[in-house]
């Protein structure tokens, strides 16, 4: 590690400095995709499918083309058979030959202004032949069901998907022998659970702006979580070499998984190529709901066997996911859900298996938690049911069975940093659990705990010294609002021992940034932070080598000093970065550029411990932990459950910026609260019935309590930057179960289906009264 | 597409001319024609609050306000709440309290908070929750926003 100091002494790490981009945002001057313009720019709009499943017979674009101001109309006929997709390459830039969900883009228009483009798109006449639609995974997997992707067997797959007909992927992980272990159990509890579709609802709708330069290079700005995934998707969908697309990002109005893979970028680039003019496309809120992506609905069966003293013996988990019309991240979500389904506990016998099916719904995909919120809702609710049957305190039961020091995660990966016990103990104290649980009156109090991954794939960093001794940090990581530009700047400033103001964070740009897989998987602080430390160490080696010349002392005898100085250990003699920059730029050696790249390489599955089939991840990440307590009040007349407060303890390894950790806790809580209590995308046959903020309720100040208490637990991750690991997702993962468990504590009603709506609570209250 | 006329708007104290048809919204005029992009289009339906502006010192949704109806009214956007381009105490409080994440709701939040503080300089936590109930933030959970508003109160 670059850190030569202990946690308590650090210069820039561990401080809640304001976000580096906060000032431009409060002034209203931050530029998002919808705020960008280019000279001579056109606007794009699309026509969406009115059918969930249909063959496209023909297009008539004449009426649209005749509208004054319309420059170009594109349909599926204008596109080749190129396909994109992170796991299974099954998706084109636009529907071609058939449509697979209602709302899918089937044609698009570029015109002089947005209103003209939108009006003209509606004049495109498409002739369809309707096909039977499959609207649930069960229906999709029935023998003889209408097949979405007739060519599935021929699609390129990046892992061994066990795919056939509408089965997109099958995954299975097992340890020990669950089948024989049931006999050893004193108590076996088996339940089924169901979760709903949730919309990401980044306040900024998705959009893109593309222009083609005279030499053919395509400049592409878009709302995204990875300029590199945008580049890859556009090039795969349009059959372009990646060297021809330059992908960039302005400020991003949040992403929770929805902006990681492509949305409108391939179509926007196609229109720019066709018109040879810049084209901007910004989705309406309705289009964003209907065409981007959403959280997977799950059907889950949990069977858990224990001893009378509470010792966990065996658990079996069966999953069925609605994947929607295209694979996108679905195989990954299934794999991660299976991997997380034992929770942060030790089960000597464990098996998780499941399927994700193609259906005629919008694609379901990555969303904060990546399959973990669904299984944690089920698994943590079931642990409370077991605690209740055994008469054991729910926190005690979790402490008894949690993954201890040195114990391995389900699948066999070692866990180096594990603050779970401290999380449970801290949250017990901060929430005054023992007293609150007994004396909460009409209110209910519930607990949940979880682990989640932090890591995955490749990343890099370049640390470049400027002429005056200040620096540019370039990582290619998109700050989606969570504060990674600030955190990475703090890591860099700590490594170089310089003020924050002396570092400029470069905006992600595929032309100039080192590869960064993306802002996802709670990975930027951990993986990109490691790359920043490595790049800074590389720069520091060079700085010391040149300082050695100026100080006439061996480099090994030199040390960094706060503020951008290098000094001789034990002596006052020192030289500034300014002097080193001047020498290297104008005299000796050449300007200092430090760089480092890495790919996360710890294996997820140890074949000596576990057997896995159809597992899409070989090296998923390190582990982060959290425990939380929720308090709810229930209106016995309406059944409405309201959140009254939340207490969290989160193991982040090392908080680089504690204020930003709190921001992730507060925000993950609010988004998890909406998911737990009322958010739900509802389909009427194949039509999404509530694609507006009028009809889809997002948590507001009236729903989210002010009382959100955060305890930061720090069990350093050995190879994390200054010990840090991620926190972006786990804060949402624990919410639904803690609220469901609090509702049971308040009312005796056990709900196994999200959202925990007033109707469901009330029905439970009535049922309890009648029994 | 539709016929438009030239209108004069009083925007952040300056008279500005724009072209507006019968259905052109105030949000379209200030963002697309007058180049002030602080107000955001989050839902275009008056629910999310990202486009919040002041019209004659009263909170309004620019996406639901017709531009032609705004003639003769005083319109203030987030850009008009700065102090010579520098953050006002309220804006600085959002910075200092970590009340900004992605920033897409921030303009609307600050305009709504400004109106709240004009009416109630010492708001309680619940007063702020009521005052900001029409502004959606998907990132923050609101706690730090509430702290930011209360942090500036009474100074």
Descriptive tags:
heterodimer; A: 771 residues; alpha+beta; Aldehyde Oxidoreductase, domain 3; Aldehyde Oxidoreductase, domain 4; 3 domains; seven-stranded mixed β-sheet; six-stranded mixed β-sheet; 29 strands; 27% helix; disordered N terminus; B: 155 residues; Ubiquitin-like (UB roll); DNA polymerase, domain 1; 2 domains; five-stranded mixed β-sheet; 16% strand
Helicity level of chain A, as a percent range? Answer: 25-40%
What structural category do the secondary elements of chain A indicate?
A: alpha+beta
CA-based gyration radius of chain A:
27 Å
Tell me what the CATH architecture of the largest domain in chain A is.
2-Layer Sandwich
Oligomer: heterodimer
What series of H and E elements makes up the topology of chain B?
EEHEEEHHHH
Shape, principal axes of CA atoms of chain B: elongated
Determine the structural class of chain B based on helices, strands and strand pairing: alpha+beta
Please specify the SSE layout and strand pairing.
The complex is a heterodimer of chains A (771) and B (155).
Chain A: H1 22-26, E1 42-48, E2 54-60, H2 62-65, E3 70-75, E4 98-99, E5 105-111, H3 114-121, E6 125-130, H4 137-141, E7 167-175, H5 178-181, E8 187-194, E9 207-212, E10 218-222, H6 227-238, E11 245-248, H7 265-275, E12 279-282, H8 285-291, E13 298-306, E14 312-324, H9 330-340, E15 349-358, H10 372-390, H11 394-401, H12 420-430, H13 433-438, E16 444-454, E17 458-465, E18 471-474, H14 484-496, E19 503-505, H15 524-551, E20 558-561, E21 565-568, E22 574-576, H16 577-586, E23 593-599, E24 611-613, E25 622-634, E26 641-651, H17 658-677, E27 683-684, E28 687-688, E29 708-713, H18 730-733, H19 735-747, H20 758-770
Parallel strand pairs in A: 1-12, 10-11, 14-15, 18-19, 26-29
Antiparallel strand pairs in A: 1-5, 2-4, 2-6, 3-5, 7-15, 7-24, 8-13, 9-10, 9-12, 13-14, 16-25, 17-18, 17-23, 20-21, 21-22, 25-26, 27-28
Helix pairs in contact in A: 6-7, 9-10, 10-19, 14-15, 15-16, 17-19
Chain B: E1 5-11, E2 14-20, H1 26-33, E3 52-55, E4 58-61, E5 74-76, H2 89-96, H3 106-119, H4 125-131, H5 143-152
Parallel strand pairs in B: 1-5
Antiparallel strand pairs in B: 1-2, 3-4, 3-5
């Amino acid at each position: 590690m670059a850190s030569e100091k202990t946690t308590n002494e650090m210069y820039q790490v561990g401080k809640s400095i304001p976000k580096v981009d906060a000032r431009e945002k409060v002034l209203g001057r931050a530029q998002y995709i919808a705020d960008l313009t280019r000279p001579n720019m056109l606007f794009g709009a699309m026509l969406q499918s009115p059918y969930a499943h249909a063959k496209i017979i023909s297009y008539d674009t004449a009426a649209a083309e005749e509208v004054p101001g319309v420059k170009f109309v594109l349909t599926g006929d204008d596109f080749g058979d190129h396909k994109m997709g992170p796991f299974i390459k099954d998706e084109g830039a636009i529907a071609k030959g058939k449509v697979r969900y209602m709302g899918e883009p089937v044609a698009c228009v570029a015109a002089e202004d947005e209103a003209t483009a939108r009006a003209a798109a509606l004049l495109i006449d498409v002739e369809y032949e309707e096909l039977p639609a499959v609207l649930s995974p069960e229906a999709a997997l029935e023998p003889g069901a209408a097949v979405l992707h007739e060519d599935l067997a021929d699609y390129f797959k990046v892992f061994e998907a066990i795919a056939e007909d509408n089965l997109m992927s099958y995954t299975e992980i097992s340890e020990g022998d669950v089948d024989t272990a049931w006999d050893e159990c004193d108590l076996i509890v088996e339940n089924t659970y169901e979760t709903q579709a949730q919309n990401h609802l980044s306040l900024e709708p998705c959009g893109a702006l593309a222009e083609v330069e005279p030499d053919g290079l395509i400049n592409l700005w878009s709302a995204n979580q990875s300029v590199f995934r945008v580049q890859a998707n556009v090039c795969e969908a349009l059959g372009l070499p990646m060297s021809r697309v330059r992908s960039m990002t302005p400020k991003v109005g949040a992403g929770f998984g929805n902006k990681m893979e492509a949305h409108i970028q391939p179509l926007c680039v196609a229109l720019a190529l066709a018109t040879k003019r810049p084209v901007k496309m910004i989705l309406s809120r309705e289009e964003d709901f209907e065409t981007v992506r959403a959280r997977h609905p799950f059907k889950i069966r949990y069977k858990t066997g224990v001893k009378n003293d509470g010792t966990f013996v065996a658990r079996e988990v069966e999953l069925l996911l609605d994947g929607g019309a295209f694979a996108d991240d679905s195989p990954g979500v299934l794999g991660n859900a299976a991997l997380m389904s034992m929770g942060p506990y030790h089960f000597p016998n464990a098996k998780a298996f499941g399927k994700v099916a193609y259906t005629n719904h919008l694609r379901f995909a990555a969303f904060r938690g990546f399959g973990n919120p669904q299984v944690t809702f089920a698994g943590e609710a079931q642990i409370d049911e077991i605690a209740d049957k055994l008469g054991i305190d729910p926190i005690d039961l979790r402490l008894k069975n949690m993954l201890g020091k040195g114990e391995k995660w389900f699948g066999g990966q070692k866990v180096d940093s594990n603050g779970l016990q401290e999380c449970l103990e801290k949250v017990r104290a901060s929430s005054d659990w023992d007293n609150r649980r007994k004396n909460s009156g009409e209110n209910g109090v519930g607990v949940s705990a979880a682990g989640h991954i932090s890591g995955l794939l490749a990343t890099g960093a370049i640390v470049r010294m400027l002429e005056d001794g200040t620096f540019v940090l370039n990582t290619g990581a998109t700050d989606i609002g969570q504060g990674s530009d600030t955190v990475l700047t703090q890591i860099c400033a700590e490594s170089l021992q310089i003020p924050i103001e002396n570092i400029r964070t470069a905006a992600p740009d595929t032309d100039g940034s080192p590869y960064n897989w993306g802002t996802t998987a709670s990975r930027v602080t951990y993986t990109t932070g490691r790359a920043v430390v490595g790049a800074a160490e590389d720069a520091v080696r060079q700085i010391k080598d040149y300082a050695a010349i100026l100080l006439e002392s061996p480099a090994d005898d030199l040390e960094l000093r706060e503020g951008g100085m290098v000094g001789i250990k034990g002596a006052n003699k020192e030289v500034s970065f300014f002097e080193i920059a001047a020498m290297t730029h104008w005299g000796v050696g050449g300007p200092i550029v430090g760089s480092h790249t890495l790919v996360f390489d710890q294996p997820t599955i140890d074949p000596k411990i576990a057997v896995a089939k159809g597992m899409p991840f070989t090296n998923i990440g390190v582990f982060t932990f959290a425990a939380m307590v929720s308090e709810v009040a229930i209106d016995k007349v309406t059944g409405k459950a309201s959140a009254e407060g939340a207490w969290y303890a989160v193991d982040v390894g090392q908080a680089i910026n504690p204020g930003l950790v709190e921001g992730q806790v507060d925000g993950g809580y609010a988004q998890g609260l909406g998911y737990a209590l009322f958010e739900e995308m509802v389909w009427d046959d194949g039509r999404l019935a509530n694609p507006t903020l009028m009809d889809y309720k997002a948590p507001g100040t009236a729903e989210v309590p002010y009382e959100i208490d955060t305890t930061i637990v720090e069990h350093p991750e050995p190879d994390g930057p200054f010990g840090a690991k991620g926190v972006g997702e786990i804060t949402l993962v624990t919410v639904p179960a803690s609220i469901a468990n609090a509702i049971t504590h308040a009312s005796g009603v056990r709900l196994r289906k999200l959202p925990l709506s007033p109707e469901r609570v009330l029905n439970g209250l009535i049922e309890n009264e009648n029994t | 597409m539709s016929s438009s006329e030239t209108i004069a708007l009083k925007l952040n104290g300056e008279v500005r001319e724009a072209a507006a048809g019968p259905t052109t919204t105030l949000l379209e005029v200030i963002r697309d024609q007058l180049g002030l992009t602080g107000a955001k289009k989050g839902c275009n339906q008056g629910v999310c609050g990202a486009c919040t502006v002041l019209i004659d010192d009263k909170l309004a949704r620019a996406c639901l306000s017709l531009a032609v109806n705004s003639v003769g009214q005083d319109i203030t956007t987030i850009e008009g709440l700065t102090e010579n381009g520098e953050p006002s105490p309220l804006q600085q409080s959002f910075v200092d309290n970590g009340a900004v994440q992605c920033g897409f709701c921030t303009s609307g939040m600050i305009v709504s908070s400004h109106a709240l503080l004009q009416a109630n300089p010492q708001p309680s936590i619940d007063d702020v929750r009521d005052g900001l109930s029409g502004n959606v933030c998907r990132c923050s959970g609101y706690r730090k926003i509430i702290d930011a508003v209360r942090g500036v109160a009474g100074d």
